[in-house]
Amino acid sequence: MYHPLVCAALLLFSFCFRVDCLQLSDCNKTYVPLIPDAELITNLSLRNCSLPRLENAFFVRFSHLLQLEVQNSGLSDLDDFSLNGLAKLQSFSLSHNNLSSLRSWSSEPLAALTTLDLSYNRLAKLRENSFSLFPHLQQINLASNHISQIAEDSFHGLAHLKHLILSGNRLQHIDGTFFQGLHRLSSLALQHNLIESIEMDSFESNTHLRSLRLDGNQLVSLQFLSQRGLARLVHLNLSKNQVQKLEDQGFSKNFELQALDLSHNNLTELKKETFSGLDSLERLNISYNNIHLMDAESLEFLSSLIQIDVSHNRLTTLPVQIFQANSQLEDVVLAHNRVKALSPLIFKHQNYLRYIQLAGNILDKAEFLESLSPSLNRLSLNVDLSSNRLQSVSMKDLLHFRHINLADNNWSCAWLVGNLVRKLPPSINFARPWTVLNNWSENLANIQGVDCTEGNTNRSIILLNVGEVLHNENTNCGGELTYDEPNPSPPPLTWPKIPTDRFDSRSVIIWMLVAIAIAFAGLRWLRRFVDRNENRTGERLKALNDMYVSKWQPTRKDQQRS
Ligand SMILES: *[C@@H]1O[C@H](CO)[C@@H](O)[C@H](O)[C@H]1NC(C)=O
Ligand SMILES: *[C@@H]1O[C@H](CO)[C@@H](O)[C@H](O)[C@H]1NC(C)=O
Ligand SMILES: *[C@@H]1O[C@H](CO)[C@@H](O)[C@H](O)[C@H]1NC(C)=O
Ligand SMILES: *[C@@H]1O[C@H](CO)[C@@H](O)[C@H](O)[C@H]1NC(C)=O
Ligand SMILES: *[C@@H]1O[C@H](CO)[C@@H](O)[C@H](O)[C@H]1NC(C)=O
Ligand SMILES: *[C@@H]1O[C@H](CO)[C@@H](O)[C@H](O)[C@H]1NC(C)=O
Ligand SMILES: *[C@@H]1O[C@H](CO)[C@@H](O)[C@H](O)[C@H]1NC(C)=O
Ligand SMILES: *[C@@H]1O[C@H](CO)[C@@H](O)[C@H](O)[C@H]1NC(C)=O
Ligand SMILES: *[C@@H]1O[C@H](CO)[C@@H](O)[C@H](O)[C@H]1NC(C)=O
Ligand SMILES: *[C@@H]1O[C@H](CO)[C@@H](O)[C@H](O)[C@H]1NC(C)=O
Questions:
Q1: Which ligand lies nearest the alpha carbon of 47?
Q2: Phi, psi (5° rounding) for residue 432?
Q3: How far, in Å, are 259, 458, 515 from residue 489 at the CA level?
Q4: Does residue 164 surpass a pLDDT of 80?
Q5: Residue 554 Cα to ligand 10 middle (Å)
Q6: What b/e string do you get for 83-103 counting C-beta neighbours within 10 Å, with b at 16 or more?
Q7: Tens digits of per-residue pLDDT, 514-531?
Q8: How far is CA 473 from the centre of its chain?
Q9: What CA–CA distance (Å, rounded) separates 38 from 139?
Q10: Is residue 459 assigned to a domain?
Q11: What is the C-alpha to C-alpha distance for residues 404 and 393, in angstroms, rounded to an integer?
């Protein structure tokens, strides 16, 4: 009656090489009940099949199944007893189907079932006792359905449930009855719903809750946080809601909280008592809000804080004592605010700093770099001061950082040239990709340049990385010259390829001279090109008398003016 050869073409044995695992795709309803040796199979996966309906006792021959997946198979209907006989089943997935109602689909309890995945279906509501024949469930995934109603006692009897995923549904309101009796629940995912309000006793019996995701909802008030059930929370995600104001001591009951994400809300200020009680907090994210004011004592309670992200707000200044109590800080993100000045002593108390990110502010001084804590290990510190308005910095303080980015500032040309002629370590970056030349030729697009101001004019300095190319070669043990993509030299100056073993000091000097000559020729050519293209006069090509920095006059700004 069945044709093993025909069927074999449809079989897809993938990661399971033993007989007890079977993965099928593109199968159909007539074939599944005919699978040979069904009673030996422990893991059965049916994907992309055509199985719109499962009849009663459909899997009765698979009496040893531990894991069953019927995914992406257009399933919309299961008869009331279609799971009969699966007494050993531990894990069951019906994700990516077309189910609109949920029942037990069995006449007796599936006592071994611990994991149920019904994600990506069309379930709209959960009725009472939906899971009462699955008493040992530990994980339920109901993500990406259309659930807007959860009846009282829907999860009744699930004393072992630890993980419940309800993300991507249409819940608007969290009722006190929804999660009643889930005493072991440790993570609850409610992100990407339409939740506007949460009743005060919603989590009253979930005293083991450690992780709560509420990001991507429409919460305005966080009052619900003060209920007893949330006292052991460790991770709380409130990103992408509409919170405008944090009440004083609003987090005072969540004293075990370690990670709090409040990004993408509409907060405007952080006051002294805002975070009181968060003694264990290690990671705080309040980026993408409208914060313009941080009280000097607003972080004073956060003595365990390791990471803080306040980027993309409207801060103009930071009180000098702001980080005084946060001695464990490693990662401070203040990028994309409007900070004009930072007190030199702001990071005086931090011995473990690894990242200071200040890009995209309007700082004109970076004196705090000179007053970092003496015990701080500078070799592990990364500082990003790009896109500010710095005119000069004290170079001797910067030489021993792991990396410092100084690109796109308002450098004074005289200071810059004086400092660039010294050999800078690769950990200091001034350059940014110079897009001005994009239009000339494909090859020129990767030039690195530094902008600076001299008197009232803007100038640009182009970095010809001759020193870098040669330096790199000396450390290579064999092979031919190659070009380092992140540090490209201007392409018209193509370097001759020579084997490294002939690279003694004499040839270094010779090649440097050749390189300088080519650089001059290239610059002359570029200038002619400018003159021709831009019809400009009066610019004089000036090259600096060192080997890896050249400077010339034409700039973007000048072009715009003319
Ligand atoms: C089911 O698949 C078998 C081959 O395995 C094929 O012979 C049969 O026609 C298919 N039935 C339907 C209804 O598509
Ligand atoms: C099932 O179909 C989807 C597209 O509909 C495809 O991406 C996926 O790889 C298929 N899976 C299998 C196991 O054939
Ligand atoms: C078979 O299913 C069991 C129970 O879910 C699981 O622990 C095991 O990893 C699965 N084996 C394979 C090879 O997928
Ligand atoms: C799911 O059901 C809807 C309506 O009943 C239907 O339009 C859709 O084609 C079905 N999807 C699949 C994958 O069978
Ligand atoms: C919070 O959720 C957002 C997505 O909405 C995610 O990008 C972010 O990483 C989450 N935060 C934490 C701390 O897990
Ligand atoms: C944020 O709050 C301000 C008032 O504080 C309001 O004018 C603005 O519309 C709010 N923005 C959003 C996106 O809700
Ligand atoms: C803070 O949240 C924003 C937006 O969700 C995210 O882009 C950023 O990476 C987070 N910061 C940290 C330090 O994780
Ligand atoms: C850049 O520095 C010059 C002095 O070198 C100063 O006149 C100018 O105002 C500064 N520009 C900005 C935007 O701060
Ligand atoms: C340069 O830009 C102009 C206009 O911006 C465009 O018309 C022209 O095609 C570009 N030339 C090249 C070589 O891309
Ligand atoms: C120099 O550059 C700055 C910032 O890019 C700009 O605001 C200013 O107008 C420029 N000055 C001149 C004289 O072009």
A1: 2
A2: -130, 155
A3: 44, 23, 11
A4: yes
A5: 14
A6: bbbbbbbbbbbbbbbebeebe
A7: 777 777 777 887 777 656
A8: 36
A9: 27
A10: yes
A11: 12
Task: Answer yes or no: is 520 within a domain.
Answer: no
Range ranked top by mean pLDDT from 2-6, 15-19, 472-476: 15-19
Q: State the pLDDT confidence band at 510, using cuts at 50, 70 and 90.
A: low
Query: In the chain, how many domains are there?
Result: 1
**Cα-based angle 467, 471, 472 (whole degrees, multiple of 5):** 120
Tell me the mean pLDDT in the region 42-69: 92
**Ligand 4, closest atom to CA 74?**
14
Chain Cα centroid distance, residue 56: 46
Cα(431)–Cα(404) distance, rounded to whole angstroms? 11
Q: What is the mean pLDDT of residues 481-510?
A: 39
Question: For the domain that residue 433 is a member of, what is the CATH number?
Answer: 3.80.10
Residue 133 backbone phi and psi in degrees, to 5? -90, 5
- 82-86, 235-239, 259-263, 282-286: range with lowest mean pLDDT: 82-86
| 490, pLDDT greater than 50 | no
Residue range(s) defining the domain that contains residue 457: 324-481
Residue owning tokens 């770099």: 369
Q: How far apart are CA 276 and CA 175, in angstroms?
A: 28
Please indicate, yes or no, if residue 33 is contained in any of the structural domains: no
Give the model's pLDDT for residue 304. Answer: 96
Q: How far apart are CA 448 and CA 489, in angstroms?
A: 8
Q: Is the pLDDT of residue 75 over 70?
A: yes
Please report, rounded to a whole number, the percentage of residues in the chain having pLDDT higher than 90: 60
The span from the CA of 96 to the CA of 144, in Å, is 9
Angstrom distance (rounded) from CA 459 to CA 412: 10
> 191 alpha carbon to ligand 3 midpoint, in Å?
29
Query: Is residue 525 in some structural domain?
Result: no
237 lines ligand 5 (CB under 6 A): yes
CA of residue 529 to ligand 9 center, whole Å:
14
